Amino acid sequence: MSRTIKYGPRREPCLKAEFASVCSIDNLNNSGLFVQINLPNEEIVDIPIHSQTTIADVFQLLIEKINLNEFFGFGLFLSNGQNIRSLVVGKEYLMDALSLIEEKGNFDWKLYLRKELFLPSENNSDDLCVDLSYRQIIKGINFGEYKCKKEEDLAILAAQQYFISLNGKSTEIDISELEDNLNDYLPLNILKQNKDDNKSLKITEEIEEECQKWIQLILHAFRKKILNNCETPPPSVKQIKCDVIKYAAKNWPLHFSRFFEVYKFSGPPLPVNQLTMAVNSHGISLLDARCDIQNQNKQSILFEIEFIELANIGYGRSKHEGADALFISLLNGDRYTFQSPLARELSHLLINILKDLHQHSIYAIALKDYNHCTVQHKMQSSENSVLSLSRGDLLILSSPLNKYLNNNEIENNEENYFIENVENIRSKMRGKVPLHSINILTCTEKPKKEKLNFLLSSRKIIEQEIINPTESKPNSDLYEYPTFYTAAIDPFGIPLICGPFPQPHTLERFASTNFRLPEDGIRPSDVFGAYNGGGCPEPELWRHSFEPLRAPLLKRIAEPGKEEIARESLISYSFILKYMGDYVSHPQQFYLEYTDYIFTPSLKYEILRDEIYCQLIKQLTDNQNPLSEERGWELMWLCIGLFPPSRFLCREVEHFLRTRLVPMAADCAMRLQKALSQCNDTNNLTTTTQYCRLSPPHQVELEAIQYRQTQIYHKFYLPDGTQETIEVESWTRAKDFSKKIATRLGLLNSLQGFGLFIKLGEKVVCMPEKEYFFDFINQVQDWARKNSRREQVINGGKRILNCGINFNYQVHFMRKLWLDVEPGKDLRQDIIFNYPQELPKYLRGYHKIDKNEAIQFAALILRAQTRDEKQPPIQHLQHILHELLPIDLLKSHSPNEWKKFISFELQKEGMPKTSTEAKLCFLQRISKEPTFGSAFFEVKQSADPTLCSKLLVAINQDGMSLYELENKKHIRTYGFKQISNWQSANTYFHLTFDNGNRLLFETTLGHKLDDLLTSYIQLLISKQEKENEKQKISPLSKIAVLLHQYKPNNYIESTSPILTNGN
Question: Which domain holds residue 949?
Answer without folding.
Answer: 935-1031
